[in-house]
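Working notes for the structural subgroup meeting. M.R. asked for a predicted model of this chain before we commit to crystallization trials. I am recording the input and output together here so anyone reviewing the notebook later can reproduce the run.

Input as submitted:
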Amino acid sequence: MPIPIGFVGPPGSVMRVSMARVLAPGAERDPAVRALEGRVVILAAEHVGLQDLHLTPYSRGALFMESRMMSGAEIHANICETLLEGRFPSPVPDGVRLAVGILVVGLGTWVFLRLDPWKGLMVLGLMASACSLLSYGCFLAEKILPASTAQASVGVCFLGSLGLRLRGEERERERLRGLFGRYVSQEVMERLLDSGRKPDLGGEAVEVTVLFSDIRGFTRISELLGPHEVVEFLNAFLGKACQAVLEEGGMVDKYVGDSVMAIFGWPVPYPDHAARALRAARKMVQATGEIQQWVAQRFVRRGIPEFRIGVGLHTGLAVVGNVGSSQRMDFTAVGDTVNTASRLEGLSKELGWSIVASQSTLEAGGAGFGIEGEKEVRVRGKATAMKVYGIMAACGGKEVS
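Returned structure, recorded in token form:
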């Protein structure tokens, strides 16, 4: 079993007497030579060229611009002193080592979980240095506290905390995928995850464009079809509507019967959310031509009348987040913007326009869209009249410019 050396001090602490002084005439009267009497004397050649220099706990290294290496002869002198005087350094009590380990692990974990990885690396260096200083202090007090154990604990804390952080982020990504994956496209989902932005699900006021669409004459169509056929018809139409929303980066909020509610500008805050919503509305109207052809082929000689859709859009502030009770929560948007978009969709039949957009939507993203007409209307629930516009779009996929 290795025996620790009880050093008497840093390099140069052991008395040195040149052999020339010992052999010089009258050496017996030299105080330095007389001091050797009755002592263990080690004969050695100390010269840098001999490379007989070694690291000790006193060595500082290149960081302090000096090595403070100790010669082999002086190390042997310290060994003799340790054996003759019995000054063997003793390990610190197990309780102290345990306390230091718990402190390092606990403090390291607490710090690393609250800091980003780069700051965590800085703290890692500081804690490792603190462990070295603590170990050096124990060495000066003739106690042994290995710095490597504490430093390894710091490293394990950092790696463990990093693993927990990565696992937590992965869980958060999975949670967001589960929450938004059904409502947004894969492209929008990946952009949200890569942005590192975590939507405030408890409620967040943001500017969005809300879209409502509805099938005109759906009641008559449902009377002519069986229950399963109605579902088949709805799935065909809602599939096209959902595709239009997702292609433009919107979020399908909900389906209510034959109606669709979609939000643009959240959870990914596209600056051109109004233009995206207008393009999605045109795609929905244009897709009705494809649905008409599909209905004519699928339900032959059933007398299914031609149908149109109405779309309403409004841009403004809305509160988005989880809304509901502890028994039932629904992720949606609420506020005047949502109500206004719904009211405009209801006015589309009265005005004779397939797409009705508010002035705020047109100002935010209407550049390049043809206007079918404009009118001031009194929207139910509004104290004052508001100006609305009909956006031109032709069924069958042809746009009137």
